[in-house]
């Protein structure tokens, strides 16, 4: 696990698996963790790492309901997990989905956890909407297309935008269960003005991007979605994202996204 300070009040933690990111934001004496790393040892040391940097986490958020983003309660079991209304509906309509996906992935990687994932302490947040943190306000924005639920989180006082699984420099747009090109396009359109207001953009997988880098990624992803809509079997993929695995993701996207969520 790697921890990098992108501002004095924002730390991005990157997991060893899939470059999955978690972001800690601070305002005044309050701090919040958005999303989560994956491995048990990463989750175990996370509270200490953040506390040593002066981040006393008092709240958890998840950008969407994929299992690799909702593990914050394994690091902070005493805290509730805030999610968008659309994500809460996913958790309610597909009970145990995140836990099953986590078990399956753990079995694949021979991972043993000290305790099971419990999502009973989950709270619903209105999206679009705002959420107070230490006297500042986080902006919550809809973000569907990768799945049929989720949100992006913007901290305007820091210039930090957390996008969930959008605008990644290591993976192409991925249509998971319920995700559609139409909704993905709509999310990119909503993210565009937020990117312009940002200094740093943190994606769910891969390193943080500057504003200019994120603008380029947004343009590349828009071009890719156009190729996907045309049904191109061998489109030109963006530099740095043109490998055998991303080609398999594209094949899954063409097939309707049924298998695209499985990295």
Task: Outline the structure in words.
With 263 residues, the chain is α/β, with parallel strands linked by helices. It has one domain: Metallo-beta-lactamase, Chain A (4-Layer Sandwich), CATH 3.60.15. It has a seven-stranded mixed β-sheet with strand order 1-2-3-4-5-6-7. A six-stranded mixed β-sheet has the order 8-9-10-11-12-13.
- Write down the domain tally: 1
Strand content: 15-25%
**N to C succession of SSEs:** EEEEHEHEHHEEEEEHEEHH
Distance between the termini: 19 Å
CATH fold naming: Metallo-beta-lactamase, Chain A
- Second CATH tier, the architecture: 4-Layer Sandwich
- The level of helicity is 25-40%
Strand ordering within the main sheet? 1-2-3-4-5-6-7
Largest sheet: 7 strands, mixed
Low-confidence spans: 258-263
Sheet/helix structural class: alpha/beta
Radius of gyration: 17 Å
* The first-level CATH class name: Alpha Beta
Mean of residue pLDDT?
A: 95
Large-scale geometry: globular
Number of strands: 13
The total of helices stands at: 7
Tell me the layout of helices and strands.
Layout: E1 2-7, E2 10-14, E3 21-27, E4 30-35, H1 40-52, E5 57-61, H2 72-75, E6 81-84, H3 85-93, H4 97-109, E7 122-125, E8 129-133, E9 136-142, E10 151-155, E11 160-162, H5 181-196, E12 200-202, E13 209-210, H6 211-229, H7 244-254
Parallel strand pairs: 4-5, 5-6, 6-7, 11-12
Antiparallel strand pairs: 1-2, 2-3, 3-4, 8-9, 9-10, 10-11, 12-13
Helix pairs in contact: 5-6
């Amino acid at each position: 696990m790697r921890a990098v300070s992108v501002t004095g009040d924002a730390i991005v933690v990157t997991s060893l698996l899939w470059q999955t990111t978690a972001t800690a934001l601070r305002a005044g004496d309050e701090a919040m963790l958005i999303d989560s790393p994956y491995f048990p040892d990463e989750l175990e040391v996370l509270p200490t790492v953040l506390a040593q940097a002066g981040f006393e986490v008092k709240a958890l958020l998840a950008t969407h309901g994929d299992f690799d983003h909702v593990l914050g309660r394994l690091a902070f079991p005493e805290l509730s997990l805030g999610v968008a209304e659309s994500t809460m509906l996913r958790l309610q309509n597909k009970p145990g989905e995140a836990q099953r996906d986590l078990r399956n992935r753990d079995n694949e990687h021979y991972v043993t956890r000290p305790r099971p994932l419990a999502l009973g302490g989950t709270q619903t947040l209105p999206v679009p909407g705002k959420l107070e943190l230490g006297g500042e306000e986080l902006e919550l924005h809809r973000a569907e297309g990768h799945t049929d639920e989720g949100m992006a989180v913007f901290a305007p006082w820091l210039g930090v935008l957390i996008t969930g699984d959008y605008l990644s420099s290591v993976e192409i747009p991925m249509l998971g269960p319920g995700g559609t090109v139409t909704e993905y396009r709509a999310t990119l359109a909503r993210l565009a003005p937020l990117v312009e207001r940002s200094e740093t953009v943190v994606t769910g997988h891969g390193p943080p991007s500057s504003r200019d880098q994120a603008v380029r990624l947004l343009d590349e992803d828009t071009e890719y979605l156009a190729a996907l809509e045309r049904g191109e079997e061998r489109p030109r993929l963006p530099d740095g994202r043109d490998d055998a695995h991303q080609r398999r993701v594209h094949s899954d996207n063409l097939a309707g996204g049924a298998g695209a969520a499985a990295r």
